[in-house]
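re the bet — no i am not wrong, look at it urself. input seq straight from the record:
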Amino acid sequence: MYQNKKTAIILGATGLTGGILLQLLLEDDRYDRIKLFSRNRVNIVSDKIEEHIEDVLNLEGFNPKFKADEVFCCIGTTNSKTPDKELYHKIDYGIPVSAAQICSKQGIEKLLVISALGADPNSSIFYNRVKGEMEEAVLKIGISKTYILQPSLISGPREERRPGEWLAKQLFKVLNVFMVGPLRKYRSIHPKEIAICMLKLANGEEASGRITSDEIKIIANHD
């Protein structure tokens, strides 16, 4: 048994990867408190879970309750789900950056954020540019252990319909075999691999920084 048990915060526990991460944390004896900050409940009953239902676009409102050993930010949207670019920016840039700012104020030393492969602040592609700007802003805040995960296309079932993403997933089932060497990082990745990697990073000694999709797979599958 672990004597000094930890508290974790998850942003995005109702999403695909965040939901898997929540299950892993519930099963992990190193944690006795999991704080969820969201607009919707997860509908899971556990003594470990502490839910705070408010508008995550205004994380500052959670500030007094935003205390933990580690923060896992699994927030993200898509162009099809959020066509309004201003709202998109508030979600994919605003939430992770606000989380990092609060971590700094609260003395939280570990922050793990899901970004995307191809994130680039100078990209002509809006999605990639926002992710790149977010990464730079989060890292600039200077949390001592900041991990930015950059997964490729995330496989696995989603509740909402995303026809374009579904087609891409079918294509990647074939293309993954041919993506070797430098192309390996572009292979699609299962959300459980991302969640396992986040948990291992939070409890390991790996150097902080950006973790590409192929590195996520290696960490997740290494015993």
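see?? The chain has one domain: 6-221. told u. also DSSP finds six helices and seven strands in the chain. so pay up
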